Structures are given as structure tokens and as C-alpha cells.
Amino acid sequence: MTTTAPGITKATKPAKARRGGVMGSTGLYIATGVAALLFLIPFYLIVRNALMTDPEITGETWKWFPTSIQWGNITEPFDDVTVDFAQSLWNSVVVAVLHTAGILLVCSMAGYGLARIPYKHANTVFYAVLVTLMVPTAVTFVPSFVLVSSLGWVDSYRGLIIPGLFSGFTCFLFRQYFLGFPKELEEAARVDGLGYWGAYWRIVVPNSLNFFAAIATITFINGWNAFLWPLVIGQDPSAWTVQVALSSYMTNQTVNYHLIFMATAISILPLVLVFLFLQRWLVQGIAQTGIKG
Amino acid sequence: MSASSNMNWDRRNVLRAAMGLAAAGGLAACGSNTGRSGGGSGDGLVQYFHAYGEAGVEQALKRYAKAYKDAGVTTQWITGNNYEQKLFAALLTKNAPDVFEFHPQIQLVKSGQVADLTDIIEPVKDDFNQADITSHTVDGKIYGVRMIDDPQFLFYRPSLFKKAGVEVPTTLEELIEAADKLTTSKVKGIFLGNDLTSIDRPLIWSAGADTLTADNKPAFNTDAVADGLKQLRGLFTSGNLLLDAPADSWDPSALIQGLTAIQWCGMWAMPAMQKALGDDIGIFPFPKVGSAGKQSVYNGGWSMFVNAKSKNVEAAKEYVKWLWIDQKKYQEDFATSYGFHIPPRTSLAQSATKLKSGLPAEGVKLFNEFGHFDNIGWTQAMIAAFWDVIANTVRKDGDPKAQLDACEKKVDAELKKLFG
Amino acid sequence: MSTTTTRGVAQPAPAKVSRPRPRRSLRASSTFNFWLFTGPFLIGLIIFVFVPIGWSIWLSFFEARFTVTPSEFVGFDNYQQILTDANFRNSLVTFTVFAAFIVPATWALSLGLALLVNRLRFMRAFFRSVFFLPTAVSYVAAALIWKMSLFNGVRFGLANTVLGWFGVDNIAWLANPDPPWYWLVIVTVRLWLQSGFYMILFIAALQNIPRELYEAASIDGAKPGWQTFRHITLPQLRATSTAVILLLLVAAYQAFDEFFNLLGKATWGQPPLVELYKMALGQNQNYGAGSAGAVVLTLLICVVTLLQGKIMGFGRGEESK
């Protein structure tokens, strides 16, 4: 990131200078600023509604800011007797972290195997993986649920996590990435007497951390935001993830706006932090993906 | 059993899950059952309830269950708009509830999903509202115990009616006219739910038609119903109908927040409305549609069923009998302490003091005078087919007659599958 | 597609090498290693993906209501039912319309944002974060914001408040399909949620374009701006564009959450997954017909993907957009 950035700025500088410097870049910043404002509106609404009283939210005249900020709203989701919000947050953390770790482990190995280990039926296996990308998950949903339930995994972390680990898509991305991984590095490892296993863990993985980070970020988001599966697997409130808890607020009679939006804000916060922190790696990782062909 | 409800998701469980992961996708590690020791385990009962919106209902149900000495009962409180799909998905598995609440629908009986409860109801049959017995009976057997009856009608703000000089409407024309007079720049005249599906059956009944005939043939495809749909289309496009309210019609928010002057809602919401609006609240039945029609009230409600595929059918029946037949105190508490509902037991309905005066008494009167009950043969698939008619003719400009014909065809196909 | 062929070509060589050395230990055997690496994934895939798929196919030939272990074989009845179902056919139209909106819109917006952000000298990280942040929000949360605060039909919705300043009456964004404002709601929610992610893809690609190309172009007298964009940037982004469009199509095809949460009991704006979901889980628990629909849909997608692979592979890529 930091190394390429100056290069790009240099490349675009002369262009801007010729178009009349200040004017051009002012226009650029205005355009970007307007777009950014539009993108921030929903976040603004969450925060506004979360810190307002309900009569103010539903009042006859629109208020851009709370007359007095209701800081007390912050603890409200945690005081709610019907939904154990703190527990659901913890469940989401556990599920998202283990989901991410599991996918990285299982899918990266499979991707590597498909990309780099010669085996005469490898293509057949690869096509079998590809086929799963075409089948809509919402439809195999019921058999999946019955299957997982018959394993006794309802209301358990296992039920929430394990069935989602075998992502054909992630495996596909890893395979594409490993196809482009420099062969020389591995061959050097082989000369040193390492098998596939050793080469993979000592050479390939350590040299692919950016890509792993990129996949990890995306996987983590998906794990955190998943709804339908956790909804059905989490029968008992103690097994709810935060998304399920969030949806439950919508059924309370006399909709409680500030509570809903405060819960939403809290549910988004961890991801926003993860994001701001990991963004750099994500950008670098994506720059190396097989995605760009 | 109790261990399951307050099961802690502590580090050990996390660790176990992690180990499961490590063991090549967890296949080796699935020996023990970490989940709740629900349906199949034989030492306790599991009951499913949809999330009632009123505060305190969940605690009340758990309190009743705790007082039952013969078996441990765990309550699953299903929130979100997903009760049916969660219930039905669970019913396919060994984690199925032993006891669950639902509406009487014949496909549950035909597929052998619900147990015959005739023997526990028979002794007190005469104390039940007879319509509630009929709506749960198939071939002489009774399959569910009605817990509560929920009449649904139109709520209105008398103060706004007075200001606009509007009388309580008795025909659909009058209702539409009233909505027009009541609409201001800030307040819409009427709210019938965002998708208008909650007035599906009232519309049919008020037009003098019915969902099905006594011998289970479609009876809703009449000119009066088609005219009613056409009139509603007019209302929909008039700008006097509240649309896209953040909370739907089963929630009293729209009326309480002053978004509308009239709202379709159920008796359960009365306490919340009275608390927010005091005396400024009145009710009237769904007005008559066309000249041959008659005002109607939809007597919905919830019933208790026993899962016939449960391993504890007998214990489950015992529990249902204990709570919903023997424990009248709890039944009255459930029907009147949170939202308002009408107890299906005649003796209770007569003695429940909270329903004896004021608006609740008015509700009981409408329930008795104009009420229509569920027809067990009118299943979810048919309901959905009629919802499509509403969507296509009221919210879209479809031809009512053609849509009703198409709906009748679908309903016929369903009936054929159910009754041969 | 090209990657698989290179792989096929590369494959025989090492296979030949390994055969004359049978004395080498099991650990070095490539067959063993192949299964070592892919085994855990494949076992899971079989249990949690292929078994349910197979189960669905099996169900599609049975009268399966309220049960997933049916006994009444009905042949192709379910297929006949689904293919004559107007709702199901409409859902395919809905998907086509939706894809026609969302794919070009997201492509253009994310590319536009990438170009903007990429030219910034100050606060670049800030703006990139702003555009990227919505990716962190779930469909559940986004649908909630859109439905309850942004596009609700009453006076305290932001969109209606703003329109109110100009004397426009409250619009029922979702309840009234005529005019179809619901597309605006559906499309904006998805644009907001996913543009940032594709913007990152484009930024990465933009930074991979060799600087020399621009320098050479300016020497050749190409005007910066549209000309260089048209003749250098766009062609250089072709691979990324193709990938983005493919990903967008897959995502559009899987669209479920926002439709399900925003539109409710409508007969319009129901993409295939919602339609099948309603059939199997929502109304009458008809797993047979639902599964039949899934099979039909899967076959359709396979055909379309194959065709698209051909077109994308040999066509002129994003210029034809």
C-alpha cells in the first residue's frame, strides 16, 4: 500500500496540474465528499435514532440531532430481560472467530491440494467443488437442518459453525491464488527435504499472509452477519447470535425504536473496528487474489 | 432439563467446539449432545410459543410451567416473524417440541403431525365456546385446545371523528368516505396493515361470502368480494390509506403515534392503546361490503397442539390438560393480565372481571355478535393464495374476477389433495 | 476457464516423475498428499453439501409435505407444478430485472469510487474507509435502517421528510408497486452494502496498472481524463471487471435477505430464492415442489454460467457493457 501509493500519486499529478490544479482537485474533493456523505447517512441514522427518545424519533417535525443525548440508551439492550444481548454478542464473537479460523484452515488446504498436488482425478474433484457453487443454499436448507439436527447439533456452537466451513467458493479462491503462487519458492523447499506438508506450512502459508488476511476479513464479516442458519439452529436464546437477537427486537409490541437502533449500533461496532484495523491487509490481499484473473 | 435452559456458553463449550473443528470438520467429536436435552430425551417436555408482544407473557408462561409438578417443561419463545418456519423445521427433527401453539389447520391433522386430544377435552366440551370446538374437529375427533380467542376489528379515535364530523361507518363506502374526511397532511385516515393481508377473511365475510362451504368447496369467489376488492383498490390509490408504517397492523403503534385515525388491530392491543390514549379509543366491526353483506369480526386466536410424533405424547397431553383445561386461574391470568384475549371457556369468559366493562366489554360484544371463527379446512396454502389476490388487485391494478378465478383454481387443487 | 487448462497441461509432468520412484515414503506420495490436503474439506463437503443436495433431488420426486422422509413417489409431478407456476416464472423475470439494475450500477459506482479515491492525495485512507465501511453491516441491520428510518412511508422517514420540504406528499416506497419505488429501495440497500468491497478490488487493480502506460500515452498526446480512461485504464481493468461482474451476478442470484425483509407478502419483486423459500418453508411446507424448483434453478444457472464463461472468455469483456 504505502509503497505503491506515492507512485500512483506521481502518475496522476501531471494530469491534474495540466487541468488547472486547484480547481480540478477541489472538484475531486467535492465529488468524493458528497459521495461520502451519502454513504454515511445510514450510519448517521443509526446513531441519531439510538441516542434519541422515541417520541422525538416519531415526532411530527424532523430533528437532525437529539435535543438531549440519551446516553442511558447505551445500556438498555443489556438490561433487557427478554433477550440476553451480551450473550448473543459473545456467541457471535465465538462463531465468527471459529468460523473464520476453520474456513481458512480447511479451504486453504483444499485449495492448495487442488492447485498444486498432482493427482490424476484432481480435475474431477475440482469440478465437483465447482458444482456446489451453483446450488442455492436456501433450498438445501431444510435437509441440511434435519441432518445437523440429527447429529444433535441444534443449539450448539458446532451446529452454528461446522456446516458452514465447507465453502466451495472460498476453496475456489484459494485454488486460484495458489495457482499463481511462485513455484520456485516451493521447489527450493522441496530441495531442502520438505514434503508438501512442510513446504505448505513453512513456505507457502507464511508467504501468503496478505491473502489469508483478505479472506479472513471477508469470512469474518459473513460469519458475523449470517442470519438464516443461526436463526434456525439457535432454538434456545442462549444460542442466539447477535443478528437473531436483533431481529427479535422487531417483534416487541409497540416498536421500541431507540432500543432497536442502539442494538443495531452495538452489533455493528465490533465489525467496524475489525475493519478499520484490517483494511490495509485486505487491500493488499485482494491485490494478490486470483480474482483479478 | 433445567440444565438446558440456563446452559452456559462458557469457555469449555468453546473449547469443545474448537476441538470439534480440529478433528477434521468435527466428525469424530459428535458423541455427546451439547444441545438442550429436548423432545427425544424422555425426561421433560418442550413447548413452543411465538413471541407475544406484550410485556410479561413469556414470564407468565414459564411461571405456569414451573408450577407443573409431573414433568419439567421448557419454553421456547420464538421471536421474529419466523414462528412458522422455525416450528415446522423443528417438527421435522428429533428436537421437535412436544407441545406447540398454532392455528387449527387441517394439514397438520392429515399429515399425522398433531395428536388426537378428544379424551382430555370431552369432559369439559360443553364449557367451551362451541365454535372453538368445531374449528378444531375433524371427523369427530378434537385435535387442539383453544387457549385464547382474539377478536380483530377496527380501532378509532373518537376525538378525530368528532373534529372531522364523521360517524362510525357501517358500510365499506362509508368507511372509505370517512377515511377521506379524516385524512390531513399529518394524519392518514386509516391503516389496514402494510400489505392489507390481515383483512383478508373479514372482507370475504363482510361481503356475505365465506372461505369454504360446509362441504369444503370454495365459497369466496363472488361478485360482492370482487366489488369489495375494487373498492379497496380505490382506497389504496386515494392517498387516505396509511402505507409503509414501520410497525404492522398487529402492533398498536400507528394509532398511538397519531399516524392514523382508524386502524385494524386485535383485542390484545387494548391495554396498550388505553394506556397511551386513555378514553380516546373506540372499536367497530369490519363494515359491510355490498348490499347483501354483513359486518364482521375475525375471531382469531391460538391453540395448543400435541406433537403426535413426540416420544412423550401421553405426558404432553397430561400437561396440556393440566394447564389449559384444569388451571382456570392461569387461563384467566393469561387471557386478561397482559394483552386482552377472550377465554374460550364459557365459564371463564363470564367471570373474567376485566372484560366486563368499558372497551373490553364492547370487544366481547362484537366478538359474540359479528364474530367468525377459523375454518380448519382453510389452510395456509389457501390463505397465501388469497393474499396473492389482495396483492394483485388492491396493491396492483389486477382484475378482481380473474384473480379470484385463479385463486379458486389453486384452492381447488389444495382441497383435492386434502379431501380427495 | 483458462486456469483449468493450464493446470491440465502442467499435470502430467509431475505425475510421470512420481511413478518411477515407488520406494519413496507414503509422505512423499502425491496421491496421499492430495487426499491429506483436500480430504477434510471433501468429507465435510460430502456430508454438509452433497448429502443435502442429493436429499433435495430425491425429495423433488416425492409428495413431501410436512415431511422430509416421504414415501409417495410422484415422478415429475412436482416439476410440472413448478414449471406451470406463474409465481415461479415471474421470479425468473424479477431476477433478470434485478440483475439488469444492480450489476451495471454496482460496477459503475464501485469503479467510480475507486477512480475518485485513487486520485486523492490527502485523506485517501479516510474516504476509502467511509466507502468500505458499509460492507461491515449485515443485511438484517441494513434492511432495518432502510425500512424503519430511511424509506418508511410515514412522516418520520428521512426520504419522505426531505421530499416534504419540496411539498411532495409521503410516498409509500414499498407497499405500493406502482410506480415501482421498491426497486429504488432494494437497489440502494445493496449498492450501499456492496459497492465498497468492489471498490477495493478496483483500487487494487488500478494500482497494478504500470505508470509507464500513462506516461507513454501523454507523450503520444492523449489527453488525460476521458481519453486515457477509455484507452488505458478501462482495458487494463478488463480482468478485474470481468471478475467483478461474475461475482455480482452470483450475488444477485443468491439475493434473498433484503427482498425477504423488505417486501413481505407481495406478488412482485420476488426473486427465485424467496419464491422457493416460501414454497418449501413458508406456507405449505411443500418440500417436494420446493426441491423441484431448486433443481430447475440449478440447471438454469449451470447453463447460464457455461454460456457466460464462453461469452466472457471470447468476447470483448467490459466494453460491451
Automatic annotation (TrEMBL), chain A:
It is found in: Cell membrane. It comes from the Bacteria. Keywords: Cell membrane, Membrane, Transmembrane, Transmembrane helix, Transport. Belongs to the binding-protein-dependent transport system permease family. It comes from Streptomyces indiaensis. The chain crosses the membrane at residues 26-47, 89-113, 125-148, 160-178, 257-278. Residues 89-278 form the ABC transmembrane type-1 domain. It is a multi-pass membrane protein. InterPro entries: MetI-like, MetI-like_sf. Pfam families: BPD_transp_1. This is Carbohydrate ABC transporter permease.
TrEMBL record, chain B:
InterPro entries: Bact_solute-bd_prot1, SBP, TAT_signal. Gene3D superfamilies: Periplasmic binding protein-like II. It holds the Pfam family SBP_bac_1. PROSITE patterns: TAT. This is Sugar ABC transporter substrate-binding protein.
From TrEMBL, chain C:
Residues 92-308 form the ABC transmembrane type-1 domain. The keyword Repressor does not apply. Residues 1-22 are annotated as: Disordered. The keyword Transmembrane helix applies. Keywords: Cell membrane, Membrane, Transmembrane, Transmembrane helix, Transport. Its main location: membrane. It is a multi-pass membrane protein. The chain crosses the membrane at residues 32-58, 92-118, 125-146, 181-206, 237-256, 287-307. InterPro entries: ABC_transporter_permease, MetI-like, MetI-like_sf. Pfam families: BPD_transp_1 (PF00528). CDD domains: TM_PBP2. It is found in: Cell membrane. Belongs to the binding-protein-dependent transport system permease family. This is Sugar ABC transporter permease. The lineage of its organism: Bacteria, Bacillati, Actinomycetota, Actinomycetes, Kitasatosporales.
